Amino acid sequence: MLEKICETVAYIMKATERRPETAIILGTGLGRLADEIEERQEIAYKDIPHFPVSTVEGHSGKLIFGKLGGKEIMAMQGRFHFYEGYSMKDVTYPVRVMRELGIKTLFVSNASGGTNPDFEIGDLMIITDHINLFPEHPLRGRNIDYGPRFPDMSEAYSKKLIAQAKEIAAELGITVREGVYLGTQGPTFETPSEYRMFRRLGADAVGMSTVPEVIVANHCGIKVFGISIVTDLGVDGKIVEVTHQEVQKAADAAQPKMTAIMRELIRRS
Ligand code: HPA
Fold first, then answer.
1. How far apart are CA 245 and CA 227, in angstroms?
2. 235 CA distance to ligand 1 centroid (A)?
3. Following CA atoms 146, 150, 155, 156 in sequence, which dihedral angle do they give, to the nearest 10 degrees?
4. Could you tell me where the DSSP H helices lie in 79-138?
5. What is the C-alpha R_g of the chain?
6. Closest residue (by CA) to atom 9 of ligand 1?
7. Between the chain's N and C termini, which has fewer beta carbons within 10 Å?
8. Domains and CATH numbers, the chain
């Protein structure tokens, strides 16, 4: 594993001279942020040794190095989901590579189903904490010395970045919610009873990504900030059929607000 990571990192460091300390995983809702990256340099996943390759509809994934909010950043366009069949090691491989590249802060986004009855479709939820319900733990197996065998998770999402993001949202006149993101494997959306169960467990929103990457980032000592776009509602009386297209549409509509907050937070962080 470590040897592979070293080979991956050696390739990337040879391919670019950029040495960012900030990384972004461009999940649903942040895709357009990629267009704003300046002085860009791209490396296709398929060219990077040991890097998993995206399976999503014709999208070949890539790393984008460049400038955003005046900062050197590295963005992952295309993330790996457990439901696609990747192992947890693959899903989180890029985060370990980030650690070796010197990344200190990771920004993530996703789309989710709101289980908090106060939420509306299109709301932005700053992720304050998560609940891991994936069937396999990304740190299962021999511990890599990037962090302790039993890592602390008492502040999985940086309180400082959350406070800064709230300040920025207020300045920009953008309403944001806060809440707990529950990560589950998918690929099914939830039955009404499952949404109800997740609510009772303490979730404000449920989705199929992010949690594995955030766990590994914490293990590596990388600070995390995450926002979720509520694209559908898993709330009694408001549950309707959900499709991927509707999720995309709702995420797209909320994207400018999310992008504005992220860009400014990156500038100030
Ligand atoms: N459930 C799980 N994942 C999701 C949802 C949902 O309702 N919406 C977007 N991603």
1. 20
2. 12
3. 60
4. 88-101
5. 18
6. 112
7. N
8. 2-268 (3.40.50.1580)
- Output the pLDDT for position 27: 82
Q: What is the pTM of this model?
A: 0.95
Residue whose Cα lies nearest atom 10 of ligand 1: it is 112
Structure tokens at 118: 């106060």
The contacts found for 56-65 with CB under 8 angstroms, 24 or more apart, are 56/84, 63/12, 64/34, 64/37, 64/40, 65/16, 65/18, 65/20, 65/40, 65/41
pLDDT at 253: 86
Q: What are the average pLDDT values for consecutive 10-residue runs of the chain, which has 269 residues?
A: 93 96 86 89 94 67 93 93 94 97 96 96 97 97 93 97 97 97 97 97 97 98 97 90 87 90 93
Whole-Å CA distances, 93 to 1, 104, 127: 9, 16, 22
Q: 256, 218, 253: which is closest to 232 by C-alpha? A: 253
| pLDDT at position 60 | 65
| C-alpha 20 – ligand 1 centre gap (Å) | 31
Per-residue model confidence (pLDDT) at position 56: 58
